[in-house]
Amino acid sequence: MEGAEVAAEEGLKLGNLVGIESTRKASFLRILGTTARIGGDHEHTKVLYEEGLVLSRELGGAQPLGDSLLALGYEYLLEGDHRRATALNEEAAAWLRERGHKGDLQYALDNLAWAALLQGDHERARELHDGSRLAVQA
């Protein structure tokens, strides 16, 4: 992942010099957030993902918003903040459903199922898990 991290950092630096669009910046921030997560630095991961989410929200309907919501929702799920993870993944699921992004919708629903399971809501977890499979088939 070191190569990805170096490339993303360079992309951000060059982007700031030439004023690249926010979609690219959001993508670079997600790459850096993922490398931080893999390296075990979860606080830095959240900072980078949050910054990417802010940029993505500025873009409105662009794909980076769905990606940013999923990335940050997953990070909160990993650290056990089920309330925040659920809110982000629910927003991601709604956004992805509206745009017909089936694969990512399945990912969001699976994250919601995982959060429900970890909170002891087995029935809701099963419903979400089954729904994630149906989302891809629809």
Task: Please explain how this structure is put together.
- With about 140 residues, the chain is mainly alpha-helical.
- The chain has one domain: Tetratricopeptide repeat domain (Serine Threonine Protein Phosphatase 5, Tetratricopeptide repeat, Alpha Horseshoe).
- Helix content is about 85%, strand content about 0%.
- The chain has 7 helices and no strands.
- It is globular and about 50 Å long.
- The model has no long low-confidence stretch (mean pLDDT about 85).
Helix content: over 70%
What average pLDDT do the residues reach? 84
Structural class: mainly alpha
Report the CATH architecture: Alpha Horseshoe
Strand tally? 0
Number of helices: 7
The CATH class: Mainly Alpha
Number of domains: 1
Shape type? globular
Low-confidence regions: none
Report the span from N to C terminus: 35 Å
What is the gyration radius calculated from CA atoms?
Answer: 16 Å
Encode the helix/strand succession as letters. Answer: HHHHHHH
The CATH topology assignment is: Serine Threonine Protein Phosphatase 5, Tetratricopeptide repeat
Q: How would you sum up this structure in a few lines?
A:
The chain has 138 residues and is mainly α.
Keywords:
138 residues, 87% helix, Serine Threonine Protein Phosphatase 5, Tetratricopeptide repeat, single chain, mainly alpha
